[in-house]
Amino acid sequence: MLAGKPVITCTDSGGTAELVSDGVTGLVVEPEAAALAAAIERLWSSRREARRMGEAGRERAAAVSWDGVVEQLTAAA
Predict the structure, then answer these.
(1) pTM for the whole thing?
(2) Secondary structure (DSSP) of the chain
């Protein structure tokens, strides 16, 4: 995400699938070759959409910091 590229991940990818907002910072698809191919084709065919998702992902990744994580954890305690 920090590279400004949309992320394609699968629904069964664990933590990665939790970090990617489908259609916002990338695409979350079923773990099937056809679904992955369709996601790649979608981003390749719509450079504007891919750029928008990449920028949103970079913003989200930049907003995450250890200071922020510690703050959230200590606020919950």
Answers:
(1) 0.80
(2) -TTS--EEEETT-THHHHH--BTTTEEEE-SSHHHHHHHHHHHHH-HHHHHHHHHHHHHHHHH--HHHHHHHHHHH-
Q: Could you report the per-residue pLDDT of 3-23, keeping only the tens digit for each?
A: 999 999 999 998 888 889 999
Retrieve residue 41's tokens.
């084709």
Measured CA to CA, the distance from residue 74 to residue 59 in angstroms comes to: 24
Task: Report the greatest alpha carbon distance in the chain.
Answer: 47
Q: Name the amino acid, one letter, at 22.
A: D
Token match 């992955």: residue?
36
